[in-house]
Amino acid sequence: MRFADFPYLISTFSPRKETVWNSFWDFCCTHTKAFGQKLPKLQRLFLVNLLLFVFVFGIPAESKKQTFQPNPDDGITIIVEKGQTLSIISKTYLDDPRKWKELLKSNQIDNPNLIIPGMKLWIPKSLGKKPLADLQRFTGTTEVLKISQKQNDWAKGNIGEGLYAKDEVRTLKESEAQFVFQSGSRFEITENSHVIMERGKTDSEPDEVFLRQGRIRSLIPKSKSPNQKMFLLKTESAESVVKGTDFITEVDTAGNTTLSCYEGSVAVSAEKVTVLVNQGFATYVEKGKAPLKPFPVPNPPIPNNQ
Questions:
Q1: Domain of life here (predicted)?
Q2: Higher per-residue confidence, 57 vs 149
Q3: C-alpha pair distances (Å), 76 with each of 70, 188, 289
Q4: pLDDT at residue number 30
Q5: 154 pLDDT more than 80
Q6: Distance CA 125, CA 74 (A)
Q7: Residues 238, 274: contact at Cβ < 8 Å?
């Protein structure tokens, strides 16, 4: 084996980052030039120190990895990908980048530098992200696209199924569905509708629903504070800030939005213009234009509480 092959050997045996060893290798190369004919002696010293380091640091790390056996029914196991940091992993799977220390503790890892691409990490259910909403009921054909789980195909929805940020729900012909957020907000979508779940950008910001197409009825509980935003409903042409109300939003195939308010009030914004739609009124937003002045609407439909 050549002396130049030792850095590769080190990176193979040691769990530490390769950049550390590159620096160490540069140091050795710089000093071996000064020794000239003393290179064989330096090689022997280097090998002795290498074997000692692997014995002291490499073996315990491997043994610890082998003795930890997580319960497969109490969480999921992921493979660390290149470029992923502990903060990114915690944000992706725990919804909080600050939980990386708890993640290390659950995997019985003391040193964060031991996290390298290709290794397995266990995500316990107790630390896992909580769903934004649950699919409470549906009729006909309702499908769910679990973007949160990196699924690319639509699948039949299940009663009680958790819906996470980025997940999508759609109803086909002669189908309806109802989902309830953890905040208590209830939504009913009619046939040929398509919605996307979104989490608030910060802890103080409300959760969101994006209505891509179709019709949705929103039943939002009243907020404790008059200035508190309880929910945000977005469409391709408008944005609705909700503070506790009952309203229906419809999006046609051209992306135009109609909002009818039956209780409370909704602030509808588009093209830097905002109109306040009070109980018994509606507004229409053509894509790329400002909302129309609110106009009266008929009586509201009866909520389906089944």
A1: Bacteria
A2: 149
A3: 9, 32, 46
A4: 54
A5: yes
A6: 6
A7: no
DSSP bridge partners of 216: 189, 249
C-alpha R_g of the chain: 28
| Rounded-to-integer distance, Cα 111 and Cα 109, Å | 6
Domain ranges of the chain: 3-66, 72-124, 133-296
* Cβ atoms 184, 200 nearer than 8 A: no
Determine the Cα–Cα distance for residues 19 and 183; give it in Å rounded to an integer. 46
The CATH number of 72-124 is 3.10.350.10
More confidently predicted of 226 and 138: 138
DSSP one-letter code for 211: E
Pairing of strands 208-219, 231-234: parallel
CATH number of 133-296: 2.60.120.1440
* The two three-digit tokens of residue 272, written as one number: 């830097």
Q: Tens digit of pLDDT for each residue in 10-57? A: 444 444 444 444 555 555 555 544 444 445 666 656 655 665 565 445
86 alpha carbon, distance to own chain's centre: 15
Query: Who has greater pLDDT, 126 or 151?
Result: 151
Residue 52 exposed, middle or buried by CB count within 10 Å (0-12, 13-18, 19+): exposed
CA distances (Å), origin 102, targets 62, 87, 197, 199, 286: 21, 11, 27, 22, 48
Distance CA 276, CA 69 (A): 57
Can you tell me the distance from the alpha carbon of 133 to that of 164, in angstroms, rounded to the nearest whole number?
A: 7
**SS3 call for 234:** strand
Q: Is the pLDDT of residue 191 over 80?
A: yes
Whole-angstrom distance, CA of residue 198 vs CA of residue 204: 14
**pLDDT tens track for 246-298:** 999 999 999 999 999 999 999 999 999 999 999 999 999 999 999 999 999 97
| 256 within 8 A of 289, measured Cβ to Cβ | no
